[in-house]
Amino acid sequence: MEPFVTLTALAAPLDRANVDTDAIIPKQFLKTIKRTGLGVSLFYDWRYLPDGKTPNPDFILNESRYQGAQILVSRQNFGSGSSREHAPWALLDYGFRAILAPSFADIFYNNCFKNGILPIRLEEQQTDRLFREIAENPGYQVTVDLPSQSIALPDGTNWTFEIDPFRKKCLLEGLDDIGLTLAHKEEILRYEARRRKEAPWLFPQNA
Predict the structure, then answer these.
(1) Domain ranges in the chain?
(2) Could you read off the pLDDT of 136-181 as tens digits, one per residue?
(3) Interatomic CA distance for residues 94 and 99, integer angstroms
(4) Record: fold of 6-175
């Protein structure tokens, strides 16, 4: 997992509340177990016309001014619905590394951290301001600094945000569940070696 430390990037608005995981990545794309390749299908039903290929000109993220955005700003209860981990996979594969919203669905919120995305809870008046300033200023960039837990706007405004210390450490060090396990590799190997001596009948000779 790629570490998250500081990100200065273009911000894109998705001014919708209760964006559920089926809208983020529809069910027909859940066959894969790979974390890559889903970005093209992100927000599929909103992003494309009924032919499934032609970009919908009315969907805001299709506007040229938001291409390459790595920060997504949305409304309350982002990521509601089913628990599919494909939702953060699709967001990450598209290029989003941080999502700013007043609230998130719990499972989606947890899954973001496990996949290298930083979800940040803001006050509603803060997101209101972001939507307004993004609309008024093409190329609007925001800086997210995880070590200081702060967000810097172009005019010098700074906001702070809360994050669980363990989740912060994992993002800073790029540790997903597998990485956390491998951090104890030597202890695991010592345990397995001891068990082989204590109970050799549990381990086939060709193992």
Answers:
(1) 6-175, 176-207
(2) 999 999 999 999 999 999 999 999 999 999 999 999 999 877 666 6
(3) 13
(4) Aconitase; domain 4 (3.20.19)
Spatial neighbors of 204 by CB under 8 A, at least 6 apart, are none
Q: Distance between CA 85 and CA 122 in Å, rounded? A: 23
Cα–Cα distance for residue pair 141/19, rounded to 1 Å: 23
Distances (CA, A) of 7 to 75, 93, 120, 146, 169: 21, 16, 13, 8, 16
Please write the tens of the pLDDT for every residue from 10-24.
999 999 999 999 999
Q: What's the pLDDT score for residue 200?
A: 82
Radius of gyration of the chain (CA): 20
Higher pLDDT, 151 or 33: 151
Q: What is residue 181's predicted lDDT score, i.e. its pLDDT?
A: 66
